[in-house]
Design goal:
447 residues; alpha+beta; Uridine Diphospho-n-acetylenolpyruvylglucosamine Reductase, domain 3; Alpha-Beta Plaits; 2 domains; eight-stranded antiparallel sheet; six-stranded antiparallel sheet; 23% strand; FAD-bd_PCMH_sub2
């Protein structure tokens, strides 16, 4: 066993306790604190933490095993990055059917978190692109899982946060595109009504859509932002392969640089530069899908205490009111969110048992960690989501209560029944395991 360094942190950097790494070959027995596969550390919270157990690093030696440029079917080890897949397939006219906000996640992580992109209203989650995968259990058995083979395990693994077994390899389908680059239509809207009044037509016409929100704007400007819709460009030209980041934040500054003062200035500039009327033009694929990948270590800008991300989903029927309530709640607590993103989740069903996306709208907020003050605000945001009949994203969380988890995922016991007994994460220990004793007590009382 070897001590873990900072490369095994989660992206939020709130908790950085020493852990120990284990080789996949050692994943052969149930241990008290369990094992957990670890990809590239882009989960924001503790779903990739196992601070008192062991992590199974998946990146070393990972490779793309096969790619058919005629069908667009690709097979790769779970530790391969999505950026590595894109670099191979783009010259052949293919792209990921679903890509999250960073290409620096592993294939296994994309499956385990059933990530979504800007086209959920068209194509659903990443799991829908997965044909099959091999899953290594702590019993030493390798199982091939697909919609037709070990289907229950297939569904539990997609969005299962790495708790059903170790994904070794996966086969996915890619989509053919005229160009990886994007024909983008962008415009600003003066308040939250401007977004909701436009989004039905925008999503009906475009493959992708996402809105940046000025979380600090108040009054009649509350919820103002910039809507960016897109489609793969018919004449977009050759796409540049993923390049090395152009900028870097080499160390964490002693204070949070993304504070109310700096964000107020940034938001005014970003909103002011956006076109008042829809403007269409071709933009590079990386700047549309993964703009922050151009800055190594951008999460360090939040300072030494790290950041919390709060991503919720709530029904479309009351989405305007819920969005306003969430923004106002953060404002009333004096918090400033750097990345505030609003998107629609469509009706395409997610294949995973524990998938986060469901029909409605999703709002993402990022906050520097200011201790108890931030935690109280996050709890208040949770209450708004629960009241709206919504859910919180577990893959980006590191503090939701067991009550919030159960309200978000009422079928979690089915997941617990499918969990490999040798696998555990700090997230599952903090949420599901806190509920399990009470559930066992209810069963005993009713016996």
């Amino acid at each position: 066993m070897t001590p873990m360094g900072s490369q095994f942190e989660s992206w939020g950097r709130v908790r950085r306790n020493p852990r120990a790494a284990a080789q996949v070959e050692q994943f052969d027995a149930v241990r008290p604190d369990g094992f957990l596969p670890f990809g590239n550390g882009r989960s924001y919270g503790d779903s990739c933490h196992n601070d008192h157990g062991h992590l199974l690093p998946m990146r070393p030696g990972a490779a793309i095993c096969a790619f058919d440029p005629d069908s667009g079917v690709l097979r790769a080890d779970a530790g391969v990055l999505l950026s590595e897949i894109l670099a191979l397939v783009m010259p052949y006219g293919f792209f990921l059917e679903v890509t999250p906000g960073t290409a620096q996640v592993t294939l296994g992580g994309a499956i385990a978190n059933d990530v979504h992109g800007k086209n959920h209203h068209r194509r659903g989650t990443f799991g829908r692109s997965v044909d099959s995968f091999t899953l290594l259990g702590s019993d030493g058995v390798r199982r091939t899982c697909s919609r037709d083979r070990n289907s229950a395990l297939f569904e539990a693994t997609i969005g299962g946060m790495g708790l059903t077994g170790v994904i070794e390899q996966a086969t996915i389908r890619l989509m053919r595109v005229p160009s990886a680059n994007v024909c983008q239509t962008a415009f600003r809207f003066a308040g939250i009504d401007g977004y909701f009044d436009a989004i039905d037509d925008i999503d009906a016409q475009h493959e992708y859509s996402v809105a940046w929100i000025d979380q600090l704007a108040r009054g009649s400007k509350l919820g103002r932002g910039v809507l960016m819709a897109g489609d793969h460009a018919e004449n977009g030209g050759p796409a540049k392969p993923p390049s090395a980041p152009r900028l870097a934040v080499p160390f964490s500054p002693p204070v949070n640089l993304l504070n109310r003062l700096t964000l107020t200035a940034f938001n005014e500039m970003y909103y002011g530069r956006a076109p008042k009327q829809p403007r269409t033009g071709v933009v590079g694929w990386s700047s549309y899908f993964h703009p922050l990948d151009a800055i190594t270590g951008w999460n360090r800008l939040y300072g030494p205490r790290g950041l919390f991300q709060h991503q919720s989903v709530y029904p479309a029927g009351t989405a305007r009111e819920t969005t306003v309530a969430l923004i106002e709640c953060a404002q009333n607590h004096g918090a400033a969110s750097f990345l505030t993103v609003l998107k629609r989740f469509g009706e395409v069903p997610s294949p995973g048992l524990m998938s986060f996306p469901r029909p409605g709208f999703t709002l993402t907020l990022d906050f520097a960690n200011s201790g108890e003050r931030t935690l109280r605000m996050l709890d208040a945001l949770d209450e708004i989501v629960i009241a709206a009949g919504g859910a919180l994203n577990p893959y980006k969380d590191q503090r939701m209560s067991a009550r919030m988890f159960e309200a978000s995922f009422p079928h979690w016991r089915e997941m617990e029944a499918m969990r490999d007994p040798a696998l555990m994460s700090d997230f599952w220990r903090r949420t599901a395991m806190a509920l399990e004793p009470r559930q066992s007590g209810r069963q005993a009382a009713g016996a």
